[in-house]
Amino acid sequence: MPLNHKHQMVILKDILSNHQTDCCGTVSECEQIERLVRSLLGNEQVGAHVKSVLPDIYAYGQNGKYSTDLDSHILSHQQQLSEWVNQLT
């Protein structure tokens, strides 16, 4: 059974929140961020306010996936992570 957009939002928010609080993450999580954002961007039920931040979150996931030091990448985005978590609420 596929996840609906509300479940996808919860998962995305959880990953971003974990990155913010733990200051670490995995390449798999970055890939999951990309998949979730792509799906949410294509969903008509997702509000414009959420869709406006999704490209930045996608770029964060993509840059993290290719980063040579993922923990530093996450650490350097602490402010954005906090903002994104609040905007996805």
From TrEMBL:
Entry-linked Pfam families: YtzH
This protein's name: YtzH-like protein
Organism annotation: Thermaerobacillus caldiproteolyticus
